[in-house]
Amino acid sequence: MENLKDIVAPFYTQCLTVNADTKVAEKMSQILADSFQSKGSTDTKGKEQLIGQIQFFWKLVPDLKWEIQEMIQEGNQVVVRSLASGTPNGNFMGVETNGTKSFKTMTIDIHTVQNGQVIE
Q: What CATH number belongs to 5-118?
C-alpha cells in the first residue's frame, strides 16, 4: 500500500508552516487536487479559497508553525494530529494582539488522498 503520509506531511511542513524556501501557492497547488474541499465546522472552502487563507495567515502570523505529532493512515485517508503555534501581528480570531500574544493549539485533521493529491 502506498504511504499517503508522504503526500500529506508537506502540507504541514511546507504550506501551513511559514517557510522562506516555499512558494506557498505553488506548493499547495501541487499537493491539493483541483476539486479539493476543506470542510470546516461552518463552511466549505475550495482550493483557491484555502490558498488565499493560508497566504493571509503567513502575513498575519510570520512565525506560524504546524508540528505533526502523529499521523495515522487508514485506506485512502490520513489522520493528522498537530500542534499549531505562532504570534499574530494583528487581530486574530477576534483578539487584538499586535505581536504581544502567542497561541498554541492542538488540531486533528482527516485528509482524503486520491491519485496522489489531497481531495479533502
A: 3.10.450.50
pTM for the model stands at 0.91
Delimit the domains of the chain by residue range. 5-118
Query: Cβ distance 65 to 17 under 8 Å?
Result: yes
C-alpha span between 76 and 115 (Å, rounded) = 10
Those residues with Cβ within 8 angstroms of residue 63's Cβ, 6 or more apart along the chain or in another chain: 18, 85, 86, 87
| pLDDT tens per residue, range 28-40 | 999 999 999 999 8
What is the pairing mode between strands 117-118 and 37-39? unpaired
The DSSP secondary structure of 51-119, one letter per residue, reads HHHHHHHHHH-TT-EEEEEEEEEETTEEEEEEEEEE--SS-BTTB--TTS--EEEEEEEEEEEETTEE-
